[in-house]
Amino acid sequence: xxxxxxxxxxxxxxxxxxxxxxxxxxxxxxxxxxxxxxxxxxxxxxxxxxxxxxxxxxxxxxxxxxxxxxxxxxxxxxxxxxxxxxxxxxxxxxxxxxxxxxxxxxxxxxxxxxxxxxxxxxxxxxxxxxxxxxxxxxxxxxxxxxxxxxxxxxxxxxxxxxxxxxxxxxxxxxxxxxxx
Length: 180
What we know:
2 strands; mainly alpha; Endoplasmic reticulum protein erp29; 6% strand; 180 residues; 56% helix; globular; 2 domains; 7 helices
C-alpha cells in the first residue's frame, strides 16, 4: 500500500491500519477467509525492500513457491528438507538418494544441469562440514562475482547462488503453509 503525505484520502487507510507517517512505505499481506472473502488477518512486512527479503516473507507467510532463476521447485523442496532436517545422517542421506532418483528421471538437458547442481551441493553438505560448506561456497561465488567474466559465466554463478539460497531460506524460516 502506498500513501502520499499530501493525500487526505489516505487518512482513512492510515487510521484503519493504525499507521504513522514514518512507517511508509509499507507492504501488507491480507489473509482472507476462503468462504466469505473477509479479511481475517493483516500482516505488516516491515523489513528491507529487496527482492530476496520479499520472496522469503511471501514464502514464509503463504507457502507459495517463488522460484529464482536457475531453480527447480522439486529440488528447492528437497534442499529445504535437507537443511531443516535435524536428524542429519541417515535422513539426509535418504534426501540425497531421492534427489539422485529425480535427477535420473529428468530428460530435459537444461533442467538436468540445474538438478545436478542441487545433487552436488547435497553431497557437499553431507560431508563433515555440513551446511557450513555451502556457506563457504556461497562466499566463494560472491568473490567471483566481483571479477570480470563472460555474461554466460556470470549468469551461471548467479544461478548457482540462487540454488544455494534454497538451502538458506529453509534454515532462516519454516515455510509451512499458513491457511489462506
